[in-house]
Amino acid sequence: MKLNILNELREKNPVVLSAANFVTVQDVANSLNAIGASPIMSKEIAEAEEMVKMASSVTLNLGTLTQLQIAQMKKIGALATQDKKPIVFDPVAVGAVNYRLQTAQDLLHSFPVSIIRGNAGEIAALGGFEWNARGIDAGSGSGNLDQITQKTAQKLDCVVIASGATDTISNGKKIAHVYNGTPLFQAHVGSGDVLSSIVAAFAAVWADPFEAAQTATLVFAATGELLAKDQPKIGPGTFGMHLIDYLSKVQVADIEKIAKFD
Amino acid sequence: MKLNILNELREKNPVVLSAANFVTVQDVANSLNAIGASPIMSKEIAEAEEMVKMASSVTLNLGTLTQLQIAQMKKIGALATQDKKPIVFDPVAVGAVNYRLQTAQDLLHSFPVSIIRGNAGEIAALGGFEWNARGIDAGSGSGNLDQITQKTAQKLDCVVIASGATDTISNGKKIAHVYNGTPLFQAHVGSGDVLSSIVAAFAAVWADPFEAAQTATLVFAATGELLAKDQPKIGPGTFGMHLIDYLSKVQVADIEKIAKFD
Amino acid sequence: MKLNILNELREKNPVVLSAANFVTVQDVANSLNAIGASPIMSKEIAEAEEMVKMASSVTLNLGTLTQLQIAQMKKIGALATQDKKPIVFDPVAVGAVNYRLQTAQDLLHSFPVSIIRGNAGEIAALGGFEWNARGIDAGSGSGNLDQITQKTAQKLDCVVIASGATDTISNGKKIAHVYNGTPLFQAHVGSGDVLSSIVAAFAAVWADPFEAAQTATLVFAATGELLAKDQPKIGPGTFGMHLIDYLSKVQVADIEKIAKFD
Questions:
Q1: Which residue in chain C has the smallest CA separation from B136?
Q2: Could you tell me if the ipTM is greater than 0.85?
Q3: With contacts defined as CB-CB under 8 Å, which chain C residues touch B67?
Q4: Which residues bind ATP (chains A, B, C) (predicted)?
Q5: CA B3 vs CA A71, A90, B39, B213, B214: distances in Å
Q6: Chain C window 49-88: which residues touch B at a Cβ cutoff of 8 Å?
Q7: Neighbours, chain A (3 or more CB pairs < 8 A)
């Protein structure tokens, strides 16, 4: 685990461009800022070229997609590919909404992505596995999540993070897990969106997307766990705000003390 | 008062679809999640059919309407009517902006709604009563709010909630009141939007819209009051976050202890 | 310094219309409400006329501009000019994105604005000065910020606020500074957007835009400083929420005690 990427990130303060969803965008911006990146959001295709040039990585989030936004994402995707900037893709609700699954597949055919971050239901849908997803929630399935994650990574030729109580990460060959976390992540809407953007911040400063994905996931999960341990009575509303505080102050040594992964 | 609807809601975890306004959407999503529902937001008309199919109820909020969103709401409204999913309508600022009043009337002619939730000025405007509304605020009027609520419910053939320091609820025949609450609801932008979505969550699991409206209003008002009593120095910013915490943990017994209604 | 404008504002509770960005809009709405104004947001050009008529001042924020929003801003700008309602302009990221700079210049040629509020990089870009801006951040430059602010104010014939650790305010003749504040403003995304909207609230109730700008900037900076002093361990996430609490309760006497300006 390359925990020093966190220090690298804070030193370089990379600009991370997000085509965001409007539900969680404020949390995403503040979390990126807190971890040490510089967030920028854009909705206008006419500024895509400059935005991608300025950014060190890109997040594309399907959470409240519109046809206009899909066109913008295609443009951003093409430009980021050309400029060799890592793209993190967040396929919100593709497990529950076929229109979104088709849109995601269309986007993934238009340009390669470095990393996909979704919940189990979203990753299973992208990989073509049976899963009973439900709205924005992971739902439940009987499949082997290691296999689903690995096969989806192979199929889409990228790193895949299936996040949840245990996070499963694969680049198609290797499989890694992060066991840290807290149920408050599921209770707070937008935890996945925030993780995707933080993964993009790590990918912005580290060439190996598997290591970036693994480390970002551990940092995020462990930071939430630290907060939940310090404030055992915290609820899902205040958790979101305090998590931003914790992201801004968490140190490699804090994470090393509690890190559980393989 | 059917307070057990709260337990029913938590057991069923219904998907509530929102055509939301972009000012308060994050609070709405987190509050829905906290009370025990599964929020999903959508801006794209092409996914309306799948979204309505997946949802158990729908909220349409005029807070930052666009012509595109109105077209989406018409589609969602027609589909929800067809599928017999309850629609909660939140006519933000129709008392102050004639364009919004006309839009609301146009929507209400296009499809029937189960429940309308607004402040006094908004409900008075929909009912055709004199009232001095002001922006997003209720403003002031000399009319009898019981009569305004009841007549508006009769006119629009649905349940109407006029929320405020006292909440007035009518299905055109019966009139109910909820006396719980705290002035912090008015101090925090979006309390009305959140209430509308919580009403939709209750309506998703309970067939009688009057009972669903009455119970949801009591649960919301009493939860805010509990928070204000526990933290008497809390301000309007932190109130919003802690209210989400309280919504996630409030129990029927807590509400029964302080419930004031008729 | 006309600190009594704060009391005037709270007495008059002016409606402030915002063409907002979707990243920080919830903070903006709650902060306006907390300081004593009545926020209203709009995205639809068809309601621009009524919205401007209802409002006492207007904020135009480029943070997540779209071509549709630019058309709306032109309409709002023309109507507000006609009705003599002060316009506050927030040129987010014009120092880093040429498309935004051109859009800002186009808007500023279409209608006069009362006050521009940006960070050093944004103000330098509008004034035509060299500056190394970076995304939404101010970046760094070697220019004299007093001169940049004053010349930009002369060039654009309005009041200019270059906000930062020290805030510099000029109407082209006079130059004022506010030395209060806390680094948490930079750590919390949207502090600038919130300040712009609060400036609009002050301009809504006070005829002299230089005095309104100066006082609003002091009130905002000092309120943040008071919070940071009371809670020295607060992080950037909880800071945003508590700042809303503090804006709702801060009194002229509290500010007078710590005010540092010239």
A1: C40
A2: yes
A3: 44, 46
A4: 117, 163
A5: 47, 38, 21, 11, 9
A6: 50-51, 54
A7: B, C
Taking only the tens place, the pLDDT of each residue in C78-119 is: 999 999 999 999 999 999 999 999 999 999 999 999 999 999
Chain A closest-CA separation from residue C251 CA (Å):
26
Q: What percent of chain A has pLDDT over 70?
A: 100
| Of B132, B121, B122, the residue nearest B62 (C-alpha) | B122
Chain A residues with CB inside 8 Å of C67's CB?
A: 44, 46
Does residue A245 fall inside a structural domain? yes
Say how far apart CA B80 and CA B71 lie, in whole Å. Answer: 14
Q: Are A219 and A198 in contact (CB under 8 A)?
A: yes
- Dihedral pair phi/psi, residue B61, rounded to 5°: -120, 125
Q: Which residues contact A175 (CB under 8 A, 6 or more apart)?
A: A146, A149, A150, A168, A169
Look at residue A262 and tell me if it is in a domain. no
CA atoms of A42 and A69, how far apart (whole Å)? 10
* A240 touching C (Cβ < 8 Å): yes
Q: Which residues of chain B have pLDDT under 70?
A: none
CB contact (8 A) between residue C135 and residue A245: no
Question: Residue B56: which CATH number?
Answer: 3.40.1190.20
What tokens appear for B138 in the block? 């209720």
Determine whether the interchain pair B43/A64 forms a contact, defined as Cβ–Cβ distance below 8 Å: yes
- Which residues are within 8 A (CB) of C102 and not within 5 positions of it... i.e. 6 or more apart? none
Q: Confirm if A132 and A140 have CB atoms less than 8 A apart.
A: yes
> How do residues A12-53 score in pLDDT, each as one tens digit?
999 999 999 999 999 999 999 999 999 999 999 999 999 999
Angle at A28 between CA A24 and CA A31, to 5 degrees: 140
The tens digit of pLDDT for each residue in A118-164 reads 999 999 999 999 888 777 777 877 779 999 999 999 999 999 999 99
Radius of gyration of chain C (CA): 17
Residues 96-125 of C with CB under 8 A from B: none
Give the pair of three-digit tokens for residue A171: 């680049």
A contacts of C227 (beta carbons < 8 Å): none
Beta bridge partners of C115: C88, C159
Closest by Cα among C107, C114, C105, C110 to C200: C114
Q: B39: domain range?
A: 4-258
Total tally of structural domains belonging to chain C: 1
Q: List chain C residues with CB under 8 Å of A54.
A: 96-97, 135
Which residue of C lies nearest to A36 if distances are taken between CA atoms? C187
Instruction: Name the CA dihedral angle for C178, C181, C187, C191, rounded to a multiple of 10 degrees.
Output: -60
Average pLDDT, chain C: 96
Distance CA A199, CA A193 (A): 10
Residue from C35, C44, C197, C231 whose CB has the most chain B CBs within 10 Å, to mutate: C44
A187/B248 touch (CB, cutoff 8 Å), yes or no: yes
Q: Is C190 within 8 Å of A29 when comparing Cβ atoms?
A: yes
H-helix or E-strand containing B227?
A: helix B209-230
Residue A190, chain C, CB below 8 Å: the answer is no
Does residue A215 form part of some domain?
yes
Q: Quote the minimal CA–CA distance from C49 to chain B in Å.
A: 10
Cα-to-chain-centroid distance, residue C185: 13
Q: Would you state the pLDDT for residue B140?
A: 78
